[in-house]
Write a structure and sequence with these properties.
About 25% of the residues lie in helices and about 40% in strands. It has 2 helices and 4 strands. The two termini are about 15 Å apart.
């Protein structure tokens, strides 16, 4: 399993609905409300062989109320 971080920008007034929908999927390891350009930050663990783009598209970006997402991949460098 490898961790990925996803930041989400939500439509005005939809952040709580998006957060509730994400929580209901039971796929999210950690979920935070953030300040700045993005409203939510989530940490997801995916299987090493999983297609991350398809996973995000199918399980995260498809949730109504999400305007934009930014996915950050992690690498074991140390």
């Amino acid at each position: 399993m490898k961790p990925i971080f996803v930041q989400l920008q939500c439509a005005p007034g939809k952040t709580y609905e998006v957060a509730d929908a994400l929580y209901a999927t039971e796929l999210i390891s950690e979920l935070y409300s953030t300040s700045g350009d993005y409203d939510l930050l989530l940490k997801i663990y995916v299987e090493s062989e999983e297609d991350i783009g398809k996973f995000i598209n199918d399980h995260v970006a498809s949730i109504p109320g999400i305007v934009r997402s930014l996915t950050t991949l992690t690498f074991r460098a140390f």
